[in-house]
Description:
Elements: H1 2-18, H2 23-28, H3 34-44, H4 50-62, H5 76-111, H6 116-128, H7 131-145, H8 168-174, H9 178-215, H10 218-225, H11 230-241, H12 243-267, H13 273-282, H14 286-314, H15 316-320
Helix pairs in contact: 1-14, 5-9, 5-12, 6-9, 7-9, 7-12, 8-9, 9-11, 9-12, 10-11, 12-13, 12-14, 13-14
Membrane topology: Multi-pass membrane protein
Main location: membrane
Family: Belongs to the binding-protein-dependent transport system permease family.
Amino acid sequence: MLGVLLALTVALFALQQVSGTDPAKAYAGANASQAALDAARARLGLDEPVLPRYLHYLSGLLHGDLQNSLRTRTPVASDLAAVLPASLELAACVLFLAVLLGSVFSYLCASGARGAGIVRAILFSGAAAPTFLLGMVAVLVFYGHLGWLPAGGRTSVRDAPTGPTGLLLADSLLAGRPDVFGDAVTHLVLPAVCAAIAPAVAIGRVLVDGLTANLEADHARTARAAGLSERAVLLRHAARNSLGPALSMVGIQAGALLAGLVVVEKIFDWPGVGSYLDASVAAADLPGITGVALILGVVYVVLNAVVDILQVVADRRLALG
């Protein structure tokens, strides 16, 4: 993890140097004089050699300093602290839905239950559509035509709690506001479902392959000979032995989900990291862009480390090996 994160800091710092964008001009303004640009370069440390600048950049990261945004003129860490909870809440709901839908899909297919073909057709059709198209169609149907769900945002309640966690679902429960909780859930439905369908299919397909192979293995035949029902064989013996590849796919899909947050948040006007990144790109705010990339990279690396640990917990053969 440390090696990957160190390589990530080198890559982000190098991209800032070769981007072709002048941070001093973005900081001082397009019409700034040469003296103002020189002062901005000195203020930003751009007049120092590359190696001392990187070491200064790395030292700042170790102390939680992600530089100052050239767009908001405030620390990027403070900006991200304000928008990150919204993205984490949405990402957690998407990942939960993806795992749930993928598990149901794999169980129906592996057990040959009635309705498996319908579920497969719905999920595969949804996964085949681009997320932005799926989101726009969902808004047109469920908001514009049916009026069942809101089109975007986190909540329509004006006095919704803003702390202590920044996660609206948790904060509404802590504040004893079931009205805010219900409203937040309705705002989460469309973006979470639209973003969860594609990873659900990927997770489900891997899990189906594992379940099918384990149901034909010797230990499954032995369990059937001992009198266990097909459902018990599937849940007790095949499921756990199939979790390893499925957990790996969960980690991969979590990384893809983080990358896709920009599109989802843009469509549904979600005030998270994706919206912040979109505004930073438009303003050529390199500290804001690299700050978001670093945070998402850290989350991705940590998630994959957690997945590796869960694989060993789920399948003791990995630990023994």
